[in-house]
Amino acid sequence: MSEIFAKRRRIMMEHMQEGVAIIPAAPVRPYGNGLEYSYVPDSNFYYLTGYREPEAIAVLRPGHERPFVLFVRDNDSFAETWFGKRSGVKGALENYGADEAYPIGEFAAKLPELLNNKPKLFYRFGASEYDGTVLSAIAALRGKMRLGFYPPRTIIDPDLILGELRLFKNEAEEIDLFRKACQISSEAHIAVLKKLPFCNNEADLEGEFYLALRRLGAERVSFNTIVAAGVNGCTLHYEENRAALNRGDLVLIDAGAQYQGWCGDISRTYPISGTFSKEQAELYEIVLEAHRVAIAASRPGTTLDAIMAESVKVLSAGMVNLGFFPTKDVNSVIEEGLYKQYFMHRVSHWLGLDCHDVGDYHIGGKARIVDKGMAFSIEPGLYVAPGSGAPERYHGIGIRIEDDVLLTDNGCEVLTAVPKEINEIEAILAQAKNAN
Ligand code: MG
After folding, report:
1. Domain spanning 3-165: CATH 3.90.550.10
2. Ligand 1 centroid to residue 356 C-alpha, Å
3. pLDDT in tens, 388-405
4. Could you state, in order of their start, the residue ranges of all structural domains in the chain?
5. Could you give the 3-state DSSP secondary structure of residue 404?
6. 265 CA to middle of ligand 1, Å?
7. What is the pLDDT of residue 10?
8. For residue 320, how far is its CA from the centre of ligand 1 (angstroms)?
9. CA of 269 to the centre of ligand 1 (A)
């Protein structure tokens, strides 16, 4: 097990100073009769432990001589025959650096002792199945105060610390994994682009993306894949992915791979026929320019709001030029929010171990100043739904272009690399068609 998890626990405990943190693994989520959704570990728990099995809880107690306690599923030959190997208590001690480890079934009985005389409890209520257990342990201690047993009096959401720690990606080891997740996401997107001339349905493209990312070593998609052809591209989180691909339409693909927990998130929009129509190209170039200026503006010292404002300026001016609004005044399109009819989301979200990563976006009610080690998406788009006030020749066109950036000392590293210039995309599609 990498040293990085022990280092993160040390830093977490330095920030806690005192008290005890209880960080549960994500629950298994059942459906149907005896079936389960594919298991996705909780990112806070994984960040601190590197442990990927369900039914586990990490306890951190700074100042204690054995500060890291792990509760895990114990070995069970019957269950392991059905569902695979478990690390067990022995594995938790030997492979995951636990100072003490116990079967998960002992958590409720041990909790009062773990909380006793700890002034602060770092635990997130409403996020796991253990709220009742925690409340019972606090109540049990409260009943024994005359004997010198005291429960925590202050309860703090551990995300106040973990969100801030996870927001900054400054360790070489974690940056390498993050780069790899983005590289696999990029290669899988390029594989899909080359298959596009031979695909007839959105589902084909979704399948090609999944095949590529699994072959490249990723564990899963980092969010539900969006493959939206034609007017479906105007639905921001379209996930049906089963419509026919019609020549003459664009197809918007928003997809990412998760590798060792790290998430890539890329959107590209391609012409199904192999070439952009005049109207598609006009809108595409506006979005691409909005994407370029946002990446150029991504550096320490700015804010996500300021980066977005750069994109919105380009998008609004482009739409004004094409006659989208009764007015020709770009400032009023921005100030009155008229652009939001065609661009209704933000340009960026944090990115990391979660695709929509943790960490506050505002400090003291203001957009926070970004700094080295922060990572986010850059994803302007334009979505012209039928029935909108834009000129009819643009109706049904949805475009999004998204890359992932990591802030460096004085700019940003673009972690993703998939062709996005019109001539590049058209050349690759022509070449792919001819090669077959
Ligand atoms: Mg995305």
Report:
1. no
2. 9
3. 999 999 999 999 999 999
4. 3-165, 168-435
5. strand
6. 5
7. 98
8. 26
9. 12
CA distance 91 to 101: 9
Say how many Å lie between the CA of residue 431 and the centre of ligand 1: 27
183 dihedral zone (left: phi>0; alpha: psi -120 to 50; beta): alpha
Mean pLDDT score, 155-183: 97
- Look-up of token digits 């929509």: 356
What is the CA(247)–ligand 1 centre distance, in A?
24
Beta bridge partners of 375: 406
Residues 6+ apart with CB under 8 A from 9: 48, 60, 67, 68
- Distance linking the first and last C-alpha atoms of the chain: 45
The DSSP call for residue 206 is H
Q: Residue 236: which of 52, 31, 375, 402 has the closest Cα? A: 402
Q: Tell me how long the chain is.
A: 436
What is the whole-number distance in angstroms between the Cα of residue 44 and the centre of ligand 1?
Answer: 21
Q: For residue 280, which amino acid is it? A: Q
Q: For residues 209 and 270, what is the distance between their CA atoms, to the nearest angstrom?
A: 15
Q: For residue 357, report the distance from its CA to the centre of ligand 1, in Å.
A: 12
| Owner of token pair 């664009």 | 250
User: Residue 1: is its pLDDT beyond 90?
Assistant: no
Q: What does the mean pLDDT of the chain come to?
A: 97
How far, in Å, from the CA of 176 to the mean position of ligand 1? Answer: 21
Residue 435 has a pLDDT of 84
Ligand 1 centroid distance, CA of 350 (Å): 11
How far is Cα 413 from Cα 352, in angstroms, rounded to an integer? 14
Q: Which fold has domain 168-435?
A: Creatine Amidinohydrolase (3.90.230)
Q: Measured between alpha carbons, how far is 355 from 349 in angstroms, rounded to an integer?
A: 8
pLDDT digits (tens, 9 = 90+) for 249-268: 999 999 999 999 999 999 99
Residues 6+ apart with CB under 8 A from 328: 320
- Ligand 1: distance of its center to the CA of 406 in Å? 16
Number of helices (H), then strands (E), belonging to the chain: the values are 13, 21
In the reported structure, the alpha carbon of residue 266 is separated from the centroid of ligand 1 by a whole-number distance in angstroms of 5
- Strands 154-156 and 120-122 turn out to be parallel
Q: 436 pLDDT exceeds 70? A: no
Surrounding residues of ion ligand 1, Cβ less than 5 A: 254, 265
User: pLDDT tens across 323-368, in order?
Assistant: 999 999 999 999 999 999 999 999 999 999 999 999 999 999 999 9
CB atoms near residue 263 (< 10 Å): 28
Beta-carbon contacts of residue 155 (< 8 Å; ≥ 6 apart): 120, 121, 122, 123, 125
Three-class SS of residue 5? Answer: helix
